[in-house]
Amino acid sequence: MKKVLLLLSFYLLISFSPDKTFAQLYWGGSGSWTSAGWSTTNSGPYTSAWVSGSAVIFNVPASTITGATTTFSSITANEDVTVTSGGTINTGATIATITVANGKTLDFGSQAISTAAGTGFVKNGAGSLALAGGTYTGGFTLNSGTVILRGVNGMGSGGTLTINGGTIAGSGNRDLTGKYTSIIVGGNFTLGSSVSPASSSASLTFNAPISLGANDRIISLGANDTRLNGIISSTGGGLTIANSTGIVNELVIAGSNTYTGPTVIGVDSRLALAATEVIPNNSPITLNGGSIFTGQFNETYSTLRLTENSNIILSSSSVQSHNFSASNLIGWTAGKTLIINNWQGGYNSTSGTAGKIFFGNNASGLTAQQLSQIKFFNGTVNSDAVQLSTGEIVPTGTLPISLTSFTGKAVNQTILLNWNTASEVNNSYFDVLRSVDGKSFTAIGKINGSGNSNSAKDYSFVDENPYAGSNYYQLVQHDFDGKTSSSAIISADSKIAATQLSVYASSSEVKISISSPNQGKCLLQLFDIAGRKLAEQSVAVNKGFNSVVLPLSLQNGIHFVRYTTDGETINQKFVR
């Protein structure tokens, strides 16, 4: 009977003992991690001793702390934290969670991290974690926010890198070759950032095999160039390359990739081929505003869909073939153009002498409408495309004009455009197009051509109402028979001052003062710190000073006014 009671007592002790928990300590002191600058409560006083293995919370703005040889179980940073190097911080050979709040940075600098087997990290929260790290092998999981690599061992060495979301960036170029046994992708993510201490010019290189899983994954390019040398595989998922920086960034792929889903190349994104046959042959291609840079390598593709103005950039220094499947049954978005750059040959409906592009193996691989959306750019103007009996697409015969120069410069408050032709054939007129971003153009003028001419001709046009700052221009030449060709895009900076905003908020209204270089319409929107839109109003503005009053009672705190016109968008922060 005593034996039964003893066993029952032992069972109850195991069954009802609470799970192991870690003490929470709040930092509010100065000096070393192991100094008496801690508190068991958020409000202090920060005079308690450090307890090894505790869960760390940073709630004091602009905290600083010096590292030490000790152990923590987790870190939550609700404010900016800078760690000065000291000792070796470790997790007790476990996987530790680090959570950084939105808009905040936990910067470990060059702090040494334990290299013990089993040590690893899980990054949560929308904020940034910067670290040089150590050769720990327990792996690294990024769920959200940004990881900024101050060294190549920032996310460990010899373990698995799991990316479920967030951003990976470098404070400098980071070659992560050999650092991970594999990369598992469980969500969309970004490579590169310009948020300090990351550098927008830093490149990242990976060589581990990458698994996309069953879903299509979006890789956004947030800075400079990224190189993926490992094999990219999937169980049904495809690869979309995106870019939100407004500056063309490049993703280089070099593996014999096997993913089975589509390949989509988005606006301002460039997919560069660093070896032969790196895009899976059964992966349908969509060009949605990006470009393919072929290098000197041959490639076989599935079908091509065109949904936005895009480019294929050939290598002019080597012979290579790019073979798309016949795409005559694939819908292309009307009005969008595919530009072929660096094509070498006679521009007379004959085969190329360097990079060649094929659609199928006969003259029906593209429809007539699709062919009309392809242009070959020779560095000056675009030429129409035809398809040969082999399936190769090539530029047509004699160019309608020989454009020798096209320039723009600021003259007082205007932009003066000048261009010259050496010869013209059947040239009816030029449309002058302008853009604020170099992407979406609007016609602002028309200049008659010279018909047929074998002598030099000079043309000019004055843009009386340019945008403040950068303006982009393009010429579209029209033949008498309705055919067109386009020039290269040029830019010119105006001398017009940019729009200026000032905001004052009282208890009952928000007064917005606008100094505008142009007359027109604008959209005013007001947001709180959480991004909730509180007001919106369309306003006609005059050149010069304008005042707009919004009858609105705001709570105390940070707010934003967004001013949007055809030419610019301004976000102005203010405090009520």
From TrEMBL:
Question: Which UniProt keyword terms apply here?
Answer: Signal
Q: Which residues form the signal peptide?
A: 1-23
This protein's superkingdom?
Bacteria
* Identification of the protein by name: T9SS type A sorting domain-containing protein
**Organism of derivation:** Pedobacter cryophilus
